[in-house]
Amino acid sequence: MSDFKAILSNIYQNVSKTNDKGTVATYIPELADIDINNFGIHLRTVNGQHYGIGDFNKPFSIQSISKVLALSKAMELVGESIWKRVDVEPSGNPFNHLSLLEIENGIPRNPLINSGAIVIADILVSSLKNPKQDFLNYVRDITGDTTINFNEDVAYSEKITGFKNYAAANLLKSFNNLNNPVEEVLDFYFHQCSIEMSCEQLTNVFFFLANKGNCLLNKARLTKTQAKRINAIMLTCGFYDEAGEFAFEVGLPGKSGVGGGIVALLPDYFVITTWAPGLNKKGNSKLGMLTLEAFTTKTKLSVF
Ligand code: GLN
Protein backbone atom coordinates (compact mmCIF):
# COMPACT_ATOMS: atom_id res chain seq x y z
CA MET A 1 0.00 0.00 0.00
CA SER A 2 2.83 2.41 0.73
CA ASP A 3 3.59 1.94 -2.94
CA PHE A 4 0.05 2.93 -3.97
CA LYS A 5 0.28 5.94 -1.71
CA ALA A 6 3.52 7.13 -3.30
CA ILE A 7 2.26 6.41 -6.81
CA LEU A 8 -1.02 8.25 -6.24
CA SER A 9 0.54 11.31 -4.65
CA ASN A 10 3.01 11.50 -7.51
CA ILE A 11 0.20 11.23 -10.08
CA TYR A 12 -1.83 13.81 -8.15
CA GLN A 13 1.04 16.31 -8.26
CA ASN A 14 1.60 15.77 -11.99
CA VAL A 15 -2.03 15.74 -13.08
CA SER A 16 -2.80 18.87 -10.98
CA LYS A 17 -0.39 20.79 -13.18
CA THR A 18 -2.45 20.09 -16.33
CA ASN A 19 -3.33 23.45 -17.88
CA ASP A 20 -6.38 22.38 -19.83
CA LYS A 21 -8.68 21.00 -17.16
CA GLY A 22 -11.66 20.71 -19.54
CA THR A 23 -14.93 22.52 -18.83
CA VAL A 24 -17.51 22.03 -16.10
CA ALA A 25 -21.02 20.95 -17.15
CA THR A 26 -23.16 24.05 -17.70
CA TYR A 27 -26.66 22.67 -18.31
CA ILE A 28 -27.70 23.37 -14.72
CA PRO A 29 -26.43 26.16 -12.43
CA GLU A 30 -25.53 23.81 -9.57
CA LEU A 31 -22.89 22.14 -11.76
CA ALA A 32 -21.86 25.27 -13.66
CA ASP A 33 -20.95 26.98 -10.37
CA ILE A 34 -18.55 24.27 -9.15
CA ASP A 35 -14.90 25.34 -8.87
CA ILE A 36 -12.98 23.59 -11.65
CA ASN A 37 -9.93 23.32 -9.38
CA ASN A 38 -11.49 20.67 -7.15
CA PHE A 39 -9.51 17.46 -7.49
CA GLY A 40 -9.61 14.39 -5.27
CA ILE A 41 -8.69 10.71 -5.38
CA HIS A 42 -9.60 7.88 -3.04
CA LEU A 43 -8.47 4.26 -3.25
CA ARG A 44 -9.48 1.24 -1.17
CA THR A 45 -8.04 -2.22 -1.57
CA VAL A 46 -10.03 -5.37 -0.97
CA ASN A 47 -7.59 -6.28 1.79
CA GLY A 48 -8.61 -3.21 3.75
CA GLN A 49 -6.12 -0.47 3.02
CA HIS A 50 -7.33 2.96 1.98
CA TYR A 51 -5.85 6.26 0.99
CA GLY A 52 -7.24 9.64 -0.07
CA ILE A 53 -5.63 12.75 -1.49
CA GLY A 54 -6.84 16.27 -2.33
CA ASP A 55 -10.60 16.92 -2.21
CA PHE A 56 -11.46 13.26 -1.57
CA ASN A 57 -13.82 14.14 1.26
CA LYS A 58 -15.92 16.81 -0.48
CA PRO A 59 -19.37 15.65 -1.64
CA PHE A 60 -20.22 16.23 -5.31
CA SER A 61 -23.08 15.39 -7.65
CA ILE A 62 -22.67 11.72 -8.62
CA GLN A 63 -25.03 12.06 -11.61
CA SER A 64 -24.75 9.07 -13.96
CA ILE A 65 -22.62 7.07 -11.52
CA SER A 66 -25.96 6.48 -9.77
CA LYS A 67 -27.04 4.36 -12.76
CA VAL A 68 -24.81 1.53 -11.55
CA LEU A 69 -26.40 1.55 -8.09
CA ALA A 70 -29.91 1.67 -9.55
CA LEU A 71 -29.02 -1.29 -11.79
CA SER A 72 -27.64 -3.20 -8.84
CA LYS A 73 -30.82 -2.62 -6.80
CA ALA A 74 -32.97 -3.66 -9.78
CA MET A 75 -30.88 -6.84 -10.19
CA GLU A 76 -31.39 -7.66 -6.54
CA LEU A 77 -35.15 -7.12 -6.86
CA VAL A 78 -36.08 -8.61 -10.22
CA GLY A 79 -32.99 -10.53 -11.37
CA GLU A 80 -32.59 -11.65 -14.96
CA SER A 81 -35.96 -10.37 -16.12
CA ILE A 82 -34.28 -6.93 -16.53
CA TRP A 83 -32.74 -8.13 -19.78
CA LYS A 84 -36.13 -8.45 -21.45
CA ARG A 85 -36.40 -4.67 -21.24
CA VAL A 86 -32.80 -3.42 -21.65
CA ASP A 87 -29.94 -4.74 -23.78
CA VAL A 88 -26.24 -4.96 -22.84
CA GLU A 89 -24.55 -3.58 -25.94
CA PRO A 90 -22.26 -0.55 -25.93
CA SER A 91 -23.87 2.39 -27.64
CA GLY A 92 -21.02 4.39 -29.16
CA ASN A 93 -23.24 7.43 -28.68
CA PRO A 94 -23.54 10.24 -26.13
CA PHE A 95 -25.44 9.50 -22.91
CA ASN A 96 -28.60 11.31 -23.94
CA HIS A 97 -28.71 10.13 -27.54
CA LEU A 98 -32.22 9.53 -28.75
CA SER A 99 -32.20 7.86 -32.13
CA LEU A 100 -34.50 4.94 -32.67
CA LEU A 101 -31.38 2.83 -32.99
CA GLU A 102 -30.61 3.62 -29.36
CA ILE A 103 -34.05 2.47 -28.31
CA GLU A 104 -34.53 -0.20 -30.93
CA ASN A 105 -38.06 -1.56 -30.69
CA GLY A 106 -38.26 0.25 -27.38
CA ILE A 107 -35.31 -1.66 -25.91
CA PRO A 108 -32.46 0.69 -24.87
CA ARG A 109 -28.99 -0.50 -25.81
CA ASN A 110 -27.75 -0.70 -22.21
CA PRO A 111 -28.70 0.34 -18.65
CA LEU A 112 -25.97 3.00 -18.34
CA ILE A 113 -27.19 5.39 -21.05
CA ASN A 114 -30.12 7.61 -20.12
CA SER A 115 -32.83 5.66 -21.95
CA GLY A 116 -31.71 2.42 -20.28
CA ALA A 117 -31.41 4.06 -16.88
CA ILE A 118 -34.96 5.38 -17.27
CA VAL A 119 -36.20 1.80 -17.81
CA ILE A 120 -34.29 0.73 -14.68
CA ALA A 121 -35.87 3.65 -12.81
CA ASP A 122 -39.28 2.39 -13.97
CA ILE A 123 -38.48 -1.09 -12.59
CA LEU A 124 -37.52 0.44 -9.23
CA VAL A 125 -40.63 2.65 -9.14
CA SER A 126 -42.72 -0.51 -9.70
CA SER A 127 -40.87 -2.66 -7.17
CA LEU A 128 -40.17 -0.30 -4.26
CA LYS A 129 -42.80 0.83 -1.79
CA ASN A 130 -41.43 4.36 -1.36
CA PRO A 131 -39.14 4.43 -4.38
CA LYS A 132 -37.01 7.53 -3.72
CA GLN A 133 -36.57 6.97 0.01
CA ASP A 134 -36.08 3.21 -0.37
CA PHE A 135 -33.41 3.73 -3.02
CA LEU A 136 -31.63 6.34 -0.88
CA ASN A 137 -31.76 3.93 2.05
CA TYR A 138 -30.31 1.19 -0.15
CA VAL A 139 -27.32 3.40 -1.02
CA ARG A 140 -26.93 4.48 2.61
CA ASP A 141 -27.18 0.93 3.96
CA ILE A 142 -24.39 -0.41 1.76
CA THR A 143 -21.89 1.31 4.08
CA GLY A 144 -24.19 2.37 6.91
CA ASP A 145 -23.62 6.03 5.97
CA THR A 146 -26.76 8.06 6.70
CA THR A 147 -25.16 11.36 5.63
CA ILE A 148 -25.63 10.43 1.94
CA ASN A 149 -28.51 12.48 0.51
CA PHE A 150 -30.30 13.87 -2.52
CA ASN A 151 -29.65 17.47 -3.52
CA GLU A 152 -33.19 18.77 -4.10
CA ASP A 153 -31.94 21.86 -6.00
CA VAL A 154 -30.10 19.63 -8.45
CA ALA A 155 -33.13 17.34 -8.84
CA TYR A 156 -35.32 20.38 -9.58
CA SER A 157 -32.83 21.82 -12.10
CA GLU A 158 -32.59 18.43 -13.83
CA LYS A 159 -36.37 18.39 -14.09
CA ILE A 160 -36.76 21.83 -15.65
CA THR A 161 -33.95 21.25 -18.16
CA GLY A 162 -34.55 17.54 -18.79
CA PHE A 163 -36.26 17.82 -22.18
CA LYS A 164 -34.30 14.97 -23.73
CA ASN A 165 -35.01 12.73 -20.76
CA TYR A 166 -38.73 13.51 -21.15
CA ALA A 167 -38.41 12.69 -24.87
CA ALA A 168 -36.67 9.37 -24.08
CA ALA A 169 -39.26 8.46 -21.45
CA ASN A 170 -42.11 9.27 -23.83
CA LEU A 171 -40.49 7.24 -26.59
CA LEU A 172 -40.13 4.29 -24.20
CA LYS A 173 -43.74 4.73 -23.16
CA SER A 174 -44.85 4.64 -26.79
CA PHE A 175 -43.12 1.25 -27.08
CA ASN A 176 -44.79 0.00 -23.90
CA ASN A 177 -41.44 -0.22 -22.12
CA LEU A 178 -42.44 2.13 -19.29
CA ASN A 179 -45.11 0.91 -16.89
CA ASN A 180 -45.40 3.96 -14.65
CA PRO A 181 -46.28 7.57 -15.52
CA VAL A 182 -43.43 9.48 -17.21
CA GLU A 183 -43.48 12.18 -14.48
CA GLU A 184 -43.12 9.64 -11.70
CA VAL A 185 -40.29 7.72 -13.34
CA LEU A 186 -38.37 10.89 -14.19
CA ASP A 187 -38.86 12.32 -10.71
CA PHE A 188 -37.14 9.17 -9.43
CA TYR A 189 -34.43 9.36 -12.12
CA PHE A 190 -33.66 13.05 -11.46
CA HIS A 191 -33.39 12.34 -7.74
CA GLN A 192 -31.03 9.38 -8.18
CA CYS A 193 -28.79 11.61 -10.35
CA SER A 194 -28.84 14.33 -7.67
CA ILE A 195 -27.31 12.14 -4.94
CA GLU A 196 -24.14 13.65 -3.53
CA MET A 197 -21.13 11.67 -2.34
CA SER A 198 -17.42 12.24 -1.85
CA CYS A 199 -14.72 10.14 -3.52
CA GLU A 200 -14.30 8.23 -0.27
CA GLN A 201 -18.03 7.54 0.07
CA LEU A 202 -18.24 6.35 -3.55
CA THR A 203 -15.24 4.07 -3.18
CA ASN A 204 -16.77 2.55 -0.08
CA VAL A 205 -20.23 2.11 -1.62
CA PHE A 206 -18.80 0.53 -4.80
CA PHE A 207 -16.59 -1.82 -2.78
CA PHE A 208 -19.05 -4.73 -3.16
CA LEU A 209 -18.53 -4.77 -6.92
CA ALA A 210 -14.82 -5.43 -6.41
CA ASN A 211 -15.49 -7.88 -3.59
CA LYS A 212 -17.64 -10.59 -5.26
CA GLY A 213 -20.88 -8.82 -4.29
CA ASN A 214 -20.05 -8.44 -0.57
CA CYS A 215 -20.08 -4.91 0.82
CA LEU A 216 -17.72 -3.27 3.33
CA LEU A 217 -20.06 -4.30 6.14
CA ASN A 218 -19.52 -7.88 4.98
CA LYS A 219 -23.04 -8.40 3.74
CA ALA A 220 -23.91 -9.94 0.36
CA ARG A 221 -25.41 -7.21 -1.82
CA LEU A 222 -25.34 -9.20 -5.06
CA THR A 223 -24.18 -12.67 -6.04
CA LYS A 224 -20.70 -13.03 -7.48
CA THR A 225 -22.24 -13.60 -10.92
CA GLN A 226 -24.37 -10.46 -10.67
CA ALA A 227 -21.32 -8.40 -9.65
CA LYS A 228 -19.44 -9.84 -12.63
CA ARG A 229 -22.27 -8.79 -14.95
CA ILE A 230 -22.34 -5.23 -13.66
CA ASN A 231 -18.56 -4.99 -14.04
CA ALA A 232 -18.84 -6.25 -17.63
CA ILE A 233 -21.47 -3.61 -18.39
CA MET A 234 -19.33 -0.88 -16.80
CA LEU A 235 -16.33 -1.94 -18.87
CA THR A 236 -18.24 -1.90 -22.16
CA CYS A 237 -20.79 0.88 -21.51
CA GLY A 238 -19.58 3.02 -18.58
CA PHE A 239 -18.26 5.96 -20.59
CA TYR A 240 -20.82 6.44 -23.36
CA ASP A 241 -19.02 7.08 -26.64
CA GLU A 242 -15.67 6.97 -24.85
CA ALA A 243 -16.00 3.45 -23.44
CA GLY A 244 -13.53 2.09 -25.99
CA GLU A 245 -11.03 4.82 -25.16
CA PHE A 246 -11.36 4.17 -21.41
CA ALA A 247 -10.81 0.41 -21.89
CA PHE A 248 -7.87 1.19 -24.18
CA GLU A 249 -6.18 3.76 -21.92
CA VAL A 250 -7.23 2.58 -18.44
CA GLY A 251 -8.48 -1.01 -18.76
CA LEU A 252 -10.87 -1.13 -15.80
CA PRO A 253 -14.65 -1.39 -15.39
CA GLY A 254 -15.82 2.07 -14.39
CA LYS A 255 -18.53 4.69 -14.51
CA SER A 256 -18.40 8.43 -15.00
CA GLY A 257 -20.87 11.22 -14.30
CA VAL A 258 -21.15 14.79 -15.60
CA GLY A 259 -20.44 16.03 -12.06
CA GLY A 260 -16.83 15.02 -12.81
CA GLY A 261 -16.67 11.81 -10.79
CA ILE A 262 -15.29 8.49 -12.03
CA VAL A 263 -15.39 5.20 -10.09
CA ALA A 264 -13.25 2.37 -11.44
CA LEU A 265 -12.34 -0.99 -9.99
CA LEU A 266 -10.27 -4.11 -10.40
CA PRO A 267 -12.25 -7.13 -9.17
CA ASP A 268 -10.70 -8.76 -6.09
CA TYR A 269 -8.17 -5.94 -5.86
CA PHE A 270 -9.28 -2.32 -5.43
CA VAL A 271 -11.81 0.45 -6.03
CA ILE A 272 -10.62 3.94 -6.97
CA THR A 273 -12.67 7.13 -7.29
CA THR A 274 -11.52 10.41 -8.80
CA TRP A 275 -13.30 13.75 -8.82
CA ALA A 276 -12.33 16.68 -11.02
CA PRO A 277 -15.32 18.61 -12.42
CA GLY A 278 -13.73 19.72 -15.71
CA LEU A 279 -15.03 17.46 -18.49
CA ASN A 280 -13.65 16.54 -21.90
CA LYS A 281 -15.75 16.77 -25.06
CA LYS A 282 -17.38 13.40 -24.38
CA GLY A 283 -18.58 14.47 -20.92
CA ASN A 284 -16.02 12.49 -18.90
CA SER A 285 -13.71 14.08 -16.30
CA LYS A 286 -10.52 15.19 -17.99
CA LEU A 287 -8.19 14.94 -14.98
CA GLY A 288 -9.97 11.80 -13.80
CA MET A 289 -9.18 10.02 -17.07
CA LEU A 290 -5.55 11.21 -16.91
CA THR A 291 -5.24 10.03 -13.30
CA LEU A 292 -6.64 6.57 -13.95
CA GLU A 293 -4.62 6.13 -17.10
CA ALA A 294 -1.42 7.01 -15.20
CA PHE A 295 -2.44 4.76 -12.28
CA THR A 296 -2.99 1.60 -14.34
CA THR A 297 0.08 2.36 -16.46
CA LYS A 298 2.35 2.78 -13.43
CA THR A 299 0.96 -0.10 -11.38
CA LYS A 300 0.36 -2.35 -14.41
CA LEU A 301 -2.93 -3.31 -12.73
CA SER A 302 -5.85 -3.65 -15.11
CA VAL A 303 -8.29 -6.34 -16.17
CA PHE A 304 -6.08 -6.99 -19.19
N1 GLN B 1 -28.66 13.93 -14.96
C1 GLN B 1 -27.95 13.84 -16.19
C2 GLN B 1 -28.90 13.57 -17.33
O1 GLN B 1 -29.71 12.69 -17.24
C3 GLN B 1 -26.91 12.76 -16.06
C4 GLN B 1 -25.92 12.90 -17.11
C5 GLN B 1 -24.60 12.20 -16.86
O2 GLN B 1 -24.01 12.19 -15.77
N2 GLN B 1 -24.07 11.76 -17.93
O3 GLN B 1 -28.87 14.25 -18.32
UniProtKB/TrEMBL annotation:
Listed Pfam families: Glutaminase (PF04960)
Q: Where does substrate bind?
A: S64, N114, E158, N165, Y189, Y240, V258
- What EC number(s) does the entry state? 3.5.1.2
Name the Gene3D superfamilies for this protein.
Answer: DD-peptidase/beta-lactamase superfamily
Catalytic activity, as annotated: L-glutamine + H2O = L-glutamate + NH4(+)
Query: InterPro entries this protein is in?
Result: Beta-lactam/transpept-like, Glutaminase
Family the UniProt entry places it in = Belongs to the glutaminase family.
Q: Which HAMAP family match?
A: Glutaminase
| Protein name, entry field | Glutaminase
Question: Whose protein is this, by species?
Answer: Algibacter aquimarinus
Taxonomic path: Bacteria, Pseudomonadati, Bacteroidota, Flavobacteriia, Flavobacteriales
Q: Which gene encodes it?
A: glsA
